[in-house]
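dumping the sequnces here before i forget
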Amino acid sequence: MIELRSVSKSFGDVAAVRDISFSTTEGEIFGLLGPNGAGKSTTIKMIMNILAPDSGAILFNGKSISEADKDRIGYLPEERGLYRKVKINEMLLYLASLKNADPVAAERRLDEWLERFDLKEWKTRTPETLSKGMAQKVQFIAAVLHDPEFIFLDEPFSGLDPISTDALREFVLELAGRGKTILFSTHNMEVAEKICSRILVIDHGREIISGSLAEIKSRYGHNTVVAEFDGNIDFGTLSGMVANVTRYPRWVEIELAPSASPQDLLRTLVAQVAIRRFEVVSPSLHRIFVEIVGGKGAKNDSERMSE
Amino acid sequence: MRSKLSKIIRMEFRLTAANKLFIVLTILGPFLIGAVTVLPTLLAMNNSAMGSPETKIALVGADPSFVEAVRPAFQQAKIRVSAVDGSVASMDAQIQTGAYDGYMVLPKDLTTVTALEYVSKNAADFRVVGVLQGVIGQSVVSQRLVKAGIAASQVATLTQSPGIATRQLTKSGEKKSSDFLTVLMTGLVFAMILYMTTLLYGQMIGRSVLTEKTSKTVEIMLSSVRPMDLMFGKILGKALASLLQYGVWVGVSALIMTLLGPKIGVTLNLGLSLATLGYLLLFFLLAFFLYCSLYAALGAASEDEQHLGQLAWPVIIFLVIPVVMISPIITTPNSPFVVGLSLFPLTAPIVMLLRISVGAAQTWEILVSIGLLLVSIAIVIWISAKIFRVGILMQGKRFKFAEVIRLSRY
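..and the predicted 3d for all of it:
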């Protein structure tokens, strides 16, 4: 279990992380969410003991992290890099050996992972020839090759094509199913929504919201409607009925005003466009994120609850 | 289970030694060193040994018997002299066509001669002029002596000037044969090898640390190992590779000297006593570690190759100073300035080695110099690991010393 207690870190005058606390439990996928520059990477680097916090404590099974603990952690840093002149299999086995992994088991797992990521023919080549996405997969392998109990992934999905994103998401779910604790950062809410059991949203280094996904959604479960349609909606006619609208070309996510009912909205919409789908849902994480971070700025949970 | 440090050392060793350029340099190194240091000296010392063609000189108006008498002396210097009769104009023409390389008009009575003229296309060929001066001059003096009534058989012994040999008094009180040229050569070769290897490996490790940053592998490395381990691993791995290369170079150079030395008529006595060899190794290692850790620190502090080059300039200057000053260091090894240089860590390895090889260094000076070097190395490695760690936070930013101090306080 990893526990952060009131961790803060500043670079000069810039407060990168302010008073962050959370803990992870075994076998869970914990999402560290926030916009660019929110302090996600700094938090992960502090957990990895690459940076030291200015104040607060980071506990690893109740104790300060030791050098030996590092062997039980797999880390995919935000800055992706590989030795350009070293063959991929050599590089990966070297990194695994630096985690004190059993060489034979590591080699067996290496073949499995290369196979699964469709990188078999790259095994004995140097990374110079790899595409960016492939290099990212190789680095993901580097993070998990020593079969760590804890896996920290900093923006693991950035720069991946949809197929690779799906594949990686599946591997992450599978690893969690095998009891690994996974902590990953992302600004991609859709991915987070699909795989996280719990999240922590930070902005400007501060905690905005935290908890299990279901809990957060119900907390923000205002009347939200998703409508798919053909035609053009005159949003002016909806004023008074909606609190917030997120528009996409063919569909909208609408947060209803407290007094309005979905039936009223549906009637108004039917008059204007051909409705293909109309559903009352819990708000998407994206919606919640934009609302908290973009709309109302940083406020802590208790204030929000009393609103 | 082997330690992480030893794994890093192994990887760095492999990365260095399994490199094509490294292998080529290992093989070509001795030849390159020879070309840079020994050849120019050899060329200046003994041109004839280098297989330059015979020089043909006409002695105009000379007595054929006189020419026969001096011919062997000229022959030794690869100069063929012949007695020729002809006008100055016809001789000039023959020089132009290349029939002769030069000519000298000799009067019938050589004993009264005070000045002679040598005409050639290459007036700067001081070797030929030197030989002419010696052989003709010697003959003229001999003829004068004979004319003055001294027996021809005695002339040679009378005109023989004594040769001067130099003997170096070593600490053990034993006098060994040595001369300025040998010490200079020894010092030059030592200094060049130290200079070249520290420069070569220093820059290599500077770049290697920099690459760790630019290729962004540093975070993944630091998620597994301590910065000090990474730094020590890099320096030690490269040190082992360098020792391997160094060993090959010294071995092959020694072999070449032993095999080829006698054949080209020059035996190079590098004066490599066991003690000097020990000091050479010791100071090589000290210089290597000092400069590598310095370069590692610079690599950690810089953001690209160009920046590294700029930061490295002051360091390179300290490597160049002793090489440029070899002559004054050897001739006045105990002047306060030279003693100072031999104690100052950045110049100490080469300067102290030179002072030791001319036998001028006191034991306490050597010990102080080694002590200072060891302390500097420890400090520099510590600082470079600090900068290295701090450097991660400063990607894309120029390195400011004050900032490093501030950031390193965690």
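Chain B has two domains: 4-44+179-407, 48-159.
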